[in-house]
Every structure is written in C-alpha cells, then in structure tokens.
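Q: What does the assembled structure look like for these inputs?
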Amino acid sequence: MGPGLPEITALVVIALICLIAFADAVRNLIKYDDELQAPIPVAEATELSPEVVK
Amino acid sequence: MTSGQIVNWTFFVGYSIAMVGIGYLGMRRTKTAEDFSIASKTFGNSIQMPLFIASFLSAASLIGFSGVAYNSGWSFLILYPAGFSVGWLMIQLMGAKFRTVPSWQTTSAMFADRFYSRFMRGWMATFYSIWMFLYVVIGLMGVSVIISSFLGVENKAAFLIVGVVFLAYTSMGGMFAVAWTNVVQFALLAAGIVIAAVFGIYKAGGLGELFNKLGAISSEDAPAGALTDLTMNGAYSWTYISGTAIGLACSIVIGTYYHRMFFAAKDERTARSFIGLSAPILLVLYLGIALIGWSARAVLPDEVGQQGAFAGLVGTMPVVLGAFVLIAVAAAVMSSMDNQLLAAGAMVSEDIFHKLMKPEASDHTVGRVARWATLILGLGAIGVALLDLALIIEFYNFFTIVSATTAFVPLVMGLYWKRTTREAGIAGSLFGFAGGLLWYFFGPESIPATIAIMPVQAIVMYLVSRATHNPPKAVIEAFFPQTPPARAAS
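A:
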C-alpha cells in the first residue's frame, strides 16, 4: 500500500529540478572565480605602458 | 502554568532576548537609508543562503503545509514542492536581471526603470506594500494558535508577544538585523523540522511502516490507498495540480522579499548562486515537513484534523524537544514577517516618499522615514491581527491570486523582451489585476486564475507593445546590454 512508481518518479523529477538550479549556481561560482583569477596582462600588472614592457 | 509551559517560556524568552540583541547590533551598524533597506550590498552567500531559506519557510510552511500533507498525503509533493522547485529554478536563472541597475532597493524601482514610468513606481509600490502588510497580518494570525497553546496565554496575547519581538528588531536594525537574525532562525527552524520529522517516523515505527499505515488509512475524505497516490485517486485533477504549481512558481519570481536579496548581495557571483545553492536544502526541509504531516496522520487519532496535525504531533514529544520545536515555529514566522515588513517599509520610504513625494529629501530623512514606516506598518499589522477579522483572510487570499496575475507577465516580458513598452507594462499589470479580481469572484475554482489570465495578458502586452513606440534607447541599453554585464563592468 506504499507509494508506487508515479510517486517516486515525481519525487525524483522535483529533486532533479532542484539539482539543475544547484548546478547553475555552482557554474556561476566557478565562472566568477575564474574571472577573478584570470592572469592580469603584464602591462596592467606593472602599470607600465605596453611599449615599455615589450 | 504547567511545568511544560515553564520550559516553553524559558526557551521563548531566551530566543526573544537573542533576537532583540541582534536587532540592537544591527541598529549600531545602520548609518544610511541604503543600510536600512538592503544593508548597502554587503552580503555574501553565508548570509544570503540562510536569509533566503529562513524567509521562504514561514509559519504557513511549518504548520499549514504539514497540515496539507496530513490531508493530501503524497499529492502534497506535486501541489507544493513541485511548484516551489520550478520557482527556485526560474529565479536562479533570472539572477543577473535583478542586478541590472546597481541602485535598485525595491521591486517597484525595477518596474519604474524598466517601464520608464512614475505610474508603475507608485502602483507597484502601493500594490506590493499592501500585499506584504497582509502577509504580516496573516503570519501573526496563523502562528498565534500554536504559540498561545504552548505558552498558555490567550490568542491576542500571543499576537502581541510575537509581534513586539519581531517588530523591535526589524525596526531597530533594518536589513542587517533581519539578515543576522535569519541566520540564527534558519539554524533553529531547520533543526526543529528535522527533530519533528525524525520523531514522527520513530512514532510511526519506521519509514516503511509509516507508508504502510498511510496507505491503509481509510476515511470519509480518503479511501484506502488515496494518501499514497499522487492525485489522491483522482480527487485532484491535473489542471488543478498544474495550475497550483504554476501559480506558486510565479509567486516566487515576483516575490519582492526575494528581489531584495538580489539587491543586497555584495556581488554578481553571490546574486547568481545563493538561490540554487539553497534549493536542495529547502527541498530536504520540505520533505521533512511532508514527513511531519504524514506521520501525524499515521499515528494521531482522526479527530486531530488538518489544522491540529503539527501541534498534535509536537504535543506528543518530550517536553524539551517540544519546546525546541516551538522555538522553530517562532523562528519560522518571524524570519518571514521581518523581511516582508521591511520590504513594505522600504517601498513606502524609497518609492512613495522619496521618489514620488520628496525627491530633494536627504539620505538621513529617507532613512528615518524608512524606520518609522516599518514601525507604523508593523504596529498596524498587529492591530489588524488583533481584530481577527475574517475579511482579512479573504483579502489575503485575493492578493495571493492577483499578485501572480498582476506582476509576473509584465516582469518577465519587461526583462526578456526589449520591445516591451511602458504602455504595455501598465496595460498588462492593470489587465492582470482586473482579470484576477473578476476570476476571484466569478471564475470556476477548479481552474486557477494563473492558467486562465496570464496567456491572455501576454497577448495583450504583445499587441500594445507593437502598437506603441519603442522604449527609449537608454532603457534598452541598460536592460539589454550588448556585452554580458560582468564583462562590461570589468
């Protein structure tokens, strides 16, 4: 008399929707972390003009 | 007073002192109007996640939804958590849109900027403020029953006790106080749900036994097997189920107290992650709430009924555990009402007072108006709750229906279709409000207003947009930048 396949499927689908939201959040965290850690161009990092760096 | 009530009072007084103390710390940190409204965009995920979860889980969630699970069995899952999960996904994906203009503090400012309209600012600020005010009144009315029985006081005394505590810390410390108290409230309510759910399963003799008992229940409203069937053996039509789920999902997207969290996030990284990171935790907590309702149905006598399911189960717990769950209920109700009240106070001060009435007002004046507006609205909500009018519940039900039909389609079309014009925004929101109003009084109950009204509303907005001039270039450039906002900012 317990829950059958449709009930378990509904629960799995709801969990999957939450996981998609979670995955999007994690993707954004990684994306913004990557942007923060992107190497700074040498000219910008040393505050010298590109010509001087060359 | 019984010894159990003395323990409950001890827990409750300790909790209340802690909340008001946090409110005082928030007041010391609050210097400007923006501090009071959105904590000057300083929150990372460690604050944003508990803030969102605690705000989402209200007394309605704990007491009301465990009652729905008691009454509807497994169909509770597709009536509520299904709609919520779709709503969480939608608002997670919309995160960047809510950060379009850095100075936004309110939902009505978002509508005003996108539809370049003072009318939309005033209309949306008024609409949302009334809606949030009603939310607070209903929150107070809903929680008073259980708080009064656990503390051994009259219903009206329970309104006052709960009302004074949450109003004190909210009006003192604004968004800092709301967020910091929500972190504590999140821990309390999550622990309370887990404790009550585990206790319910234990009382039922284990998870398998719980479902066996649930499936075997045969009563007037639920023949054998109905409580473990998704549609309660066809008692709920799929039109009703999908309409309810769509309505709930839409109500999350237009929730002004969720928008405020996007405005309060310290950066794009936080704004575009806190909802998704919270979603699995919220789902687990909703499953806990379902288990509380199901186990109450399986182990308590039939006379308890839907309304008494939560209190009935908690009443069978050992005294200290019961007192802890009572604090979880108090935390749940306050963590939602404080944010709703602050949202209303911010719209009254920032949109109605500052932007529409006194554009020359100083930041100091706007901050004072925000604090006073929050306090007065809160006192008004306590006063209205004390009257205990049936009419208030009717108003609340009405606003719940028309909120989705009024704001969802204009918000989504405005943010995602650049051709949407001011005239379309105004026509769409007024059409949705009027349509929701008519549906509330004359529409068939079996078909939710969201399904009937919103498709027509979208067509109306499309036609009006096509018939009117393009939005100004500045609006299109702000809302639909050629380069992604993160790149443009760097």
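The radius of gyration of chain A is 24 Å.
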